[in-house]
Design brief:
25% of the residues lie in helices and 6% in strands. By secondary structure, the chain is mainly alpha-helical. The termini are far apart.
Length: 263
């Protein structure tokens, strides 16, 4: 039996400090269904009446009826959907054949986004707000982040700040802790790591790559953006512009190729 990330129907992940209740103390034993204190319908009704939204990952009433969600979501590391999800709701990880592998996680109880995953077609992420499918992990990740709270109103979701070691309670959008030339808010927009000056590890700082239209998430050291015969990395090391063919390194001994050719 495959191990699956389990969020069962009826499913409730939430919510405010007031009550939509989280599940009772649950036990995932062999072939025993999990029960929840609040049904999905009740949760949706209450959430809507309070102007809240909930994140729903559709499942079934028994462990053995939940398909593939572990592989589609929990193990998706680029973008790090697993980390965002575990940071913000309560997934239940269950293998009905091995009850001691049941591992509950519990963090923040509130997610201001309505979305779900169709367990019988796990490649499709359903944006329940619009009833449409999201077919790519990045889209789901962006929707998830965009729906999260921003307590300090700095333009960066709280979950993203915590995941990257920033202070979700302090407006630090203009800070640059890794000194790569990108402010935290720019790192969020670019998808780079605000605590790592070279997210893709290619020897060129994130800020420099963004400034000249390179991809800070892809190793492009050997590329030649302006087709001037000099690699992007060499242009960085020489202090020239990789997007301008007229700006290129000066050979220290321009006569050397001619000398070698004549000999």
């Amino acid at each position: 039996m495959k191990k699956n990330l389990l969020l069962l129907t009826p499913v409730v992940l939430l919510i405010t400090i007031t009550i939509i209740l989280l599940p009772n103390r649950l036990s995932a034993q062999d072939n025993v269904p999990l029960t929840w204190v609040t049904s999905k319908a009740e949760a949706v009704t209450k959430a809507l009446s309070e102007g809240k939204y909930i994140l729903l990952l559709a499942g079934a009433s028994y462990c053995q009826h939940c398909y593939n969600m572990h592989y589609v979501v929990s193990e998706t590391n680029n973008p790090p959907i697993k980390a965002v999800i575990e940071e913000n709701y309560v997934p239940w990880y269950c293998d009905i054949m091995v009850s001691d592998e049941y591992k509950p996680y519990s963090t923040e109880p509130y997610i201001p986004l309505t979305c779900r995953i169709d367990p019988r077609d796990p490649e499709k992420f359903i944006d329940q707000s619009y009833g449409s499918y999201l077919n790519h992990e990045q889209t789901f990740y962006n929707r998830l982040l965009s729906g999260l709270g921003d307590i300090d109103s700095d333009g960066m979701p709280d979950a993203w700040e915590r995941l990257n070691g920033l202070d979700a309670l302090f407006n630090d959008a203009a800070n640059d802790p890794d000194n790569d030339g990108l402010k935290n808010i720019d790192e969020y927009t670019a998808g780079t790591n605000p605590k790592n000056s070279d997210t893709d590890g290619d020897g060129m700082p994130d800020g420099w790559e963004v400034q000249y239209g390179l991809n800070p998430l892809v190793n492009d050291t050997d590329g030649d953006l302006d087709n001037d015969g000099w690699s992007n990395l060499k242009e960085y090391l020489k202090g020239t512009k990789p997007d301008d063919p007229k700006s290129r390194p000066t050979r220290t001994m321009p006569w050397l190729p001619l000398l070698l050719e004549n000999n």
